[in-house]
Amino acid sequence: MPLDPGLIDDLVAANRILVDQGVLDGYGHVSVRHPADPQRYLMSRSIAPELVTAADVMEYDLDSNPVDARGRATYLERFIHGEVYRVRPDVRAVVHDHSPSVIPFGVSTAPLRPLYHMSAFLGGGVPVFDIKTASGQSTDMLVRTAALGKSLAQTLGTRPVALMRGHGAVVVGASLPLVVFRAVYTEMNARLQAQALALGGPVTYLDDEEARRAEASVGGTVTRPWELWRRKALGR
Length: 236
Ligand SMILES: [Zn+2]
Description:
Layout: H1 5-20, E1 29-33, E2 40-44, E3 57-61, H2 79-87, E4 93-97, H3 103-107, E5 128-129, H4 131-135, H5 146-156, E6 161-164, E7 168-173, H6 176-198, H7 208-219, H8 223-234
Parallel strand pairs: 5-6
Antiparallel strand pairs: 1-2, 1-4, 2-3, 4-7, 6-7
The structure holds zinc ion.
The site of zinc ion has 5 residues, from loops.
């Protein structure tokens, strides 16, 4: 099926932006659902995100089998993407990252909560996926099977973000610009929240109504940073 080259460029840009913003490093991945076939998604072959070019983008089915691998390696944790797309028809883009600031919130009793308006989308709560509970035993911490991917998608439920204990996060959205925005501001909220907690005393978070209103307002502006970040990412 012919693909819009603009979408492939968006996917390449998303990889580079997420590295620029400290969300991805040599690891992690971002995908987009195939615009013409909801049973497929697009993601790079197994390569560091900053190095991704249009030629590295491959098509996968929802079992996360590459449609035409031609010898190219696939990410071990691709099942995260396929299993989320399977159960979330609203989701058109997925990020899996090892975003450093979120890690403490996946391993402690402090829940990640929105403390400023840019991350209001966290207002519905951020669940934590524990792979040991999901698999019933100790693992190498990687979501390397469809069953684990399914379990992670269940933990995510209808939310935009889930943390993965001792590992990272999965972030979803209705578009690449939105999922990139959410991944960036999840990392930033986690950093700011840790700073606020370290100051001591109670921290005031956005209340439910503030979170709903702020998400609606800020949600309409995500193309502004996206256009800036995309231009910088593709201009090199
Ligand atoms: Zn991972």
